[in-house]
UniProtKB/TrEMBL annotation:
PANTHER family linked: SLR6007 PROTEIN (PTHR30121:SF6), UNCHARACTERIZED PROTEIN YJGR-RELATED (PTHR30121)
Keywords: ATP-binding, Nucleotide-binding
Annotated region described as Disordered, given as residue ranges: 1-65
Name of this protein: ATP-binding protein
Length: 618
């Protein structure tokens, strides 16, 4: 007995042939006769033939599409997506090319078209049989392929929109009708239909190319890819740059690469925004850079060849080093800045103590309670300013606090308790290497710092003190925000220039914290986010820990770009649809999900494989 039991020695085909030969070989009189055939026909010589007339099983004509709408398990479109039942049978020749997330078209008889997306794929039995058996499994293990004729392949569809023609213009509306049974479905391969179905704009700031499952969506057009852009004009609302952008991605996900490519588009020569006085002004980009990578945007990428450049030009993508790039290097103690990895111009600056008068939390360190912060703001700083004037320095302020007579006077008068005075003094110490260094004050450099069409990079990688880094970043960003939101600004250059304020590792500065000064920072950036549209101020935040950014700021973000994230809390915090959320941990470098409700449906993209400027250190 073999491993398949009694079937091992049995050959049904050979035994049947043998029996047929024996029966036909001998008639009743012992002579051989030809076998008869029920379907045989008489020939011209009176004999019979044993040929059957073939019956065609394939339909006539050429297939169009990939399958058809089926109703075996219902056909229903409802306002509640969970109650929608929309399925399509996919024919055998098309099954291997179908992916979850692919876009399909199902036409209506009157010329309208249902644009939908595959959200599920299923094999079902064509005929009822139990294939969970030893024989079926062993037979499958000994064959090279699968006979798909034995199975049905069904795609579950999610309606996205109905496409219709309006005086020659293709438009979309919500799904409000059900397709007919047996409607032929086909892949969406027309750029206009896909962009209309997904509500994607034709023009704007380039982010990447539309993809499904890590593969670019291809069309019959030239170029075959579909570019994804953010609205950047006032024809259909405010430019999305002023409604704020968040890029979230883990280490090695291509976060900085992608951020550089996006910022390069805002620095394009033809990009400008109208101001209240009627002028068209190019935006200024100010980028805080803790890893010292963005000053490289001054230089060309040597790996970007001519052929790739021509392709970028055809798609209207700005590329190449941006000549008007300046690294404004904060002077902190004896820390030195090395810039061998870029050729951008360098300008040193310092934070003058005079900025503390408007932003007292800059010198508060951390941990001040309400009483201590009130003493600093309402008593100590005003008295110091009255005594030393607007040009008072940080060194003079610490000397001022060392006066025991002042401490005793304020305690006896009941204005500041001696314990509160001592707590404030302890916490404002330690900033001697931050304020009033041997460099020009940032307040004297505003005209150079904010330049229409210019990129200003503030590197902090050379600063080893995180407390000093935080003070510098918040001082400079507050200067920009305060002047932008002011009705009577001191620096007209800031007020009259569109600004993109970029902040890498934003979670370090905009996190929730139980201190007064942290609350002040959050309030400042929240106001900036709320009024950014009106004042032409856009926040461009980059982080690997989006869950740490304060909700008040996060809620003002309109465009979220998510690259690979491995942390579950981080993925949950970015608030993207669940079908895309599940893909985030598995995305390769450069793959991204874009969630921008005012720009398009949530989509998956692939960024450019090469950085548009120099990137990475040799």
């Amino acid at each position: 007995m073999t491993d398949l039991g009694d079937f091992g020695d049995f050959n049904a085909e050979s035994d049947a042939d043998s029996g047929a030969r024996d029966d036909s070989a001998a008639g009743s009189d012992g002579t051989r006769t030809a076998p008869s055939s029920a379907g045989g026909s008489t020939g011209t010589d009176g004999g019979t033939t044993d040929d059957f007339e073939p019956t065609p099983v394939e339909p006539q004509g050429e297939d169009v599409g990939i399958g058809a709408i089926c109703v075996s398990q219902g056909l229903r479109v409802a306002e509640d997506g969970d109650e929608t039942t929309l399925r399509a049978y996919i024919t055998r020749g098309n099954r291997s090319s179908i992916r979850i997330g692919s876009y399909l078209l199902a036409p209506y008889p009157d010329g309208e078209t249902l644009f939908c997306r595959i959200i599920g794929l299923e094999y079902a039995q064509q005929y009822h049989a139990d294939d969970a058996t030893e024989i079926h499994a062993r037979r499958a293990m000994r064959t090279d392929g699968v006979d798909e004729a034995d199975y049905k392949f069904v795609a579950e569809l999610e309606p996205v929109a109905v496409l219709y023609d309006d005086d020659g213009e293709l438009k979309r509306r919500m799904t409000d009708r059900v397709p007919k049974p047996q409607t032929v479905v086909r892949k969406a391969d027309d750029t206009e239909q896909i962009k209309t179905g997904l509500k994607m704009p034709d023009d704007g700031v380039f982010l990447g190319h539309l993809s499904v499952g890590g593969e670019k969506v291809r069309t019959a057009a030239t170029p075959p890819t579909i570019d994804y852009r953010l609205k950047d004009d006032y024809d259909s609302g405010d430019p999305l740059v002023f409604r704020h952008t968040l890029i979230a991605g883990g280490t090695g996900s291509g976060k900085t690469h992608g951020a550089k490519n996006i910022l390069r588009q805002y620095l394009a020569e033809d990009r400008a925004y109208p101001m209240d006085d009627g002028r068209e002004v190019r935006p200024a980009v100010v980028q805080f850079d803790p890893q010292d990578e963005y000053a490289q945007m001054h230089d060309d990428n040597p790996d970007l060849d001519d052929e790739f450049g021509r392709r970028l030009e055809r798609e209207g993508i700005a590329y190449g080093g941006h000549e008007d790039t300046t690294a404004f290097v904060p002077k902190v103690g004896s820390a030195s800045y090395a810039a061998g990895h870029h050729r951008a111009r360098q300008v040193e600056f310092t934070i003058p103590f005079s900025m503390v008068y408007d932003n007292p939390w800059l010198v508060a360190g951390s941990g001040l309670n309400d009483n201590q912060y009130g003493a600093l703001v309402s008593v100590l700083l005003p008295r110091f300013r009255k005594q030393y004037g607007d040009d008072g320095t940080y060194e003079e302020f610490t000397t001022f606090l060392d006066d025991p007579a002042l401490r005793e006077e304020l305690d006896e008068s009941g204005r500041v308790h001696e314990a509160t005075f001592d707590a404030v003094r302890r916490r404002v110490l330690g900033f001697g290497h931050v304020f009033d260094q041997d460099a020009r004050p940032i307040t004297d450099l505003v005209h150079e710092f904010v330049r229409p069409g210019g990129l200003t990079v503030v590197p902090t990688y050379h600063i080893n003190d995180s407390r000093a880094t935080e003070a510098i970043v918040l001082a400079v960003s507050s200067l920009i925000i305060d002047q932008k939101l002011s009705n009577d600004p001191f620096y007209d250059r800031i007020k009259e220039t569109p600004i993109v304020l970029g902040m890498d590792e934003a979670h370090n500065f905009l996190t929730d914290a139980d201190s007064v000064q942290a609350g002040k920072v959050i309030n400042k950036f929240t106001e900036a986010a709320k009024q950014g549209r009106k004042e032409r101020l856009g926040l461009f935040l980059i982080t690997q820990d989006p869950q740490d950014i304060h909700d008040a700021v996060f809620k003002q973000i309109n465009t979220t770009v998510v690259l690979n994230l491995g942390d579950e809390d981080a993925i949950k915090s970015v608030n993207i649809p669940s079908n895309l959320e599940s893909k985030v941990p598995y995305m390769e470098k450069g793959q991204m999900v874009v969630y921008s409700p005012d720009n398009s449906e949530p989509v998956e993209l692939i960024g450019l494989p090469k950085c548009l400027t120099r990137h990475g250190r040799d």
